[in-house]
Amino acid sequence: MGQATTANLTFPPMGTVTGTVFRAGGTVPAAGVRVSVSRSGFYRETYTNASGVFTLNDVLTGDVLTGDGFTLTAYEPSSGVPSSAPVNVAKDQPTTKNLVLVGWALSTSR
User: Fold this and answer.
1) Which CATH number is 55's domain given?
2) What is the DSSP string of the chain?
3) pLDDT tens column, 37-86
4) 40 FRET partner, CA 20 to 30 A, in 5, 7, 84, 86?
């Protein structure tokens, strides 16, 4: 029979980034928009719900001022044009950051 091995694991501190993505103009929520949070060596992605709300869980902690913060980006669905903002992530706390899309495309079918 094999021997049992005990290992002590230490996980890095994590937080959550949440917010709402709005169409250009900043008042109408944008549904189905791809949203990412990233920095060197780290990337998470999700999509906004019907109310334009997104939540990214299990994001490493980091602060923009110390050089280990993140960039939060939403991509305009038709053109892929990104709208970005810096974001800090605190341990075991939600960080709320809203984004406004640049030039949400509107289709006019007749």
Assistant:
1) 2.60.40.10
2) -PPP------PPPEEEEEEEEE-TTSSSB-TT-EEEEEETTEEEEEE--TTSEEEEEEEEPB-GGGT--EEEEEE-TTT--EEEEEE-B-TTSEEE--EE-SS-------
3) 999 999 999 999 999 999 999 999 999 888 889 999 999 999 999 999 99
4) 7
Measured CA to CA, the distance from residue 81 to residue 75 in angstroms comes to: 6
**44 in a domain, yes or no?**
yes
Domain membership of residue 35 as a residue range = 14-100
Q: Is residue 85 part of a domain?
A: yes
pTM given for the model = 0.84
In a domain, 110, yes or no: no
Asked if residue 1 belongs to a domain, the reply is no
If one counts the domains in the chain, the total is 1
Q: Is the pLDDT of residue 105 over 70?
A: no
Question: Hey, how many other C-beta atoms are within 10 angstroms of the C-beta on 65?
Answer: 9
